[in-house]
Amino acid sequence: MMEEKPDIRKDSELVVHNVKAYLLKSSTKSKLNLYDHLSQVLTKILDERPENVVDMFEDISKEVKLTCFSKKLDTLREKKEISPLCELAEIQKALFYKTTETEEDDETELWESPLPNVMEMAFYFEQAGVGLSRDETFHIYLAMKQLTDGQPLQRCRFWGKILGTEMNYFVVEAEYREGEEEEEDEEVMETESKESELKTVHEELNEEENEEFQTFPKSTYVPPPIIPREENHFGANKYIYFVCNEPGQSWVKLPMVTPAHIAAARYIRRFFTGRLENRIVSFPPFPGYEANYLRAQIARISAGTHVSPLGFYQFGMEEDEEEEETVRDTYEENPDYEGYPVQDMVESLSKWVHHLQHILPQGRCVWVNMSQKRERDEDEDEEEEEEEDEGPDEPEPEVGPPLLTPVSEDAEIENTVPWTAKISSSLIPQHSIAILQSNIWPGAYTFATGRKFENIYIGWGHKYVAENYCPPFPPQAQVEYPSVPEIFETSDPTVAEELAYRQAMEEEHKGKEEMEEEDEEQDEEDDEDD
């Protein structure tokens, strides 16, 4: 018998039917099948016949899918996803637009541009292994040009970069030209006047409540006086600061710092998020937003890390003639300064000096006697009251190191040397520069070579702590109100005392009832006799 040969046609047809059945299987999500989808995609390709079909196949497939939505979702379309790099490129595109020559000529005629040479500064810091990438530095350079073109600035410099969990802060330190910030001062005065009005209204309400409830004890707590902030161009508010999250975004001016912000910032440690409007939730509570906390940290970092070579700055002749008790807060450049050899600046820290005022524990650079201010207010409010005993002695004034103090006199903190000086290259010392690194504020660096020097900060904005950070303990509980005859708290009675008290009350009640009955009987007898 001859063997039957298998029918190849039937087998191939069966395979084709199985494959087609698999391709016609509808999806449980979109209710579509791959067979129809491929046929529609191929039909569109053959109709349009685009070039480089292989590179566009995925996009064509997406477009075909978008046209196959059900009727309920006809109006919905998926947005094309834009990568963060593309969004940043769109923002930074405006940095590369050049202004007209006439506008630039008018600006140069009015004043000299305060724009510094950021690329030169980055070149020197790059030798020390500090700084940002060249592309990012150039973008910052263009963004600072936009700032100087739009703001009437007299001085401008790149302060540094503070890192955040969501976004970073690029910080620019600047000064307005004279007479250009009067409107800003008026706004500050309005806010301060509103705060004083709210304070007076609050005090009046408290007085009315005390008059209505005279039986309740009055609190003897006196809130501490509000320490006033330093004026513009002085102390911690000597400079103004602009920040942005990315070069090309709009610059935001930070508010002026107050002593309360600085004092609270010393007790907390919190990472920045990159959002200025975020509320700071911490203990002790911080009186402000992230913009205020950022401004306070910038003031602290600047006061502790901004240094310059010895002799680059000098005091004016007029200040030398003034009294020694006055605090010097101004200086000028020394035109005769020629610089020190790099090796001398590395070996001796006395060749570096602080050129910003030290921030006192009060939160200001110049101490204010708040006890005298409080006494004046009390004298104005209580002229008719009797004279009281003399108050406590006046507090000792807080005094910090004077300006242009060498960094060699800085005290160690938790056995940590505050500064480290090094040379940029030991292989080529004749062309190297001196680098000074802060160990108290990690991320703060200074370079010096000849008559050039600059300060920069790139870090998280936190001070060095040898041990793990521990929040301060809450304050002690308030002392209870003193016990007086009018206010006396008795102890709880025992069970035996309660039973004896109940028995005595019952006997007293029975005695009263018997007395009332006897009185009634006597009244009835008197009536019968009448």
Short description:
This protein is 38% helix and 11% strand. It is built from 14 helices and twelve strands.
SS element count, helices: 14
Largest sheet: 8 strands, mixed
Number of strands: 12
What Rg, in angstroms, do the CA atoms define?
40 Å
Unreliable stretches (pLDDT < 50, length at least 5) are: 184-191, 384-391
The SS-based structural class is alpha+beta
Topology pattern, helix = H, strand = E: HHHHHHHEEHEEHHEEHEHEHEEEEH
Percent of residues in helices comes to 25-40%
Backbone shape: flat
Tell me what portion of residues adopts beta-strand conformation: 5-15%
**Order of strands, widest sheet:** 4-3-2-1-12-11-10-9
C-alpha termini separation: 156 Å
Q: Would you tell me the overall average pLDDT? A: 82
Element layout with pairings:
Elements: H1 8-23, H2 34-48, H3 53-66, H4 84-92, H5 101-110, H6 118-127, H7 134-150, E1 153-162, E2 169-176, H8 182-212, E3 240-244, E4 252-253, H9 259-265, H10 290-305, E5 307-309, E6 313-314, H11 317-321, E7 332-333, H12 342-347, E8 352-354, H13 370-381, E9 419-423, E10 434-438, E11 444-449, E12 452-459, H14 495-529
Parallel strand pairs: 1-12
Antiparallel strand pairs: 1-2, 2-3, 3-4, 5-8, 6-7, 9-10, 10-11, 11-12
Helix pairs in contact: 2-3
Give a description of the structure.
With 530 residues, this protein is an alpha+beta fold. It contains 14 helices and twelve strands. It has a domain of 307 residues. The strands form three sheets. The chain has an eight-stranded mixed β-sheet with strand order 4-3-2-1-12-11-10-9, with helices on both faces. Strand 11 and strand 12 form a beta hairpin. The longest helix is centred in the last third of the chain and has 35 residues.
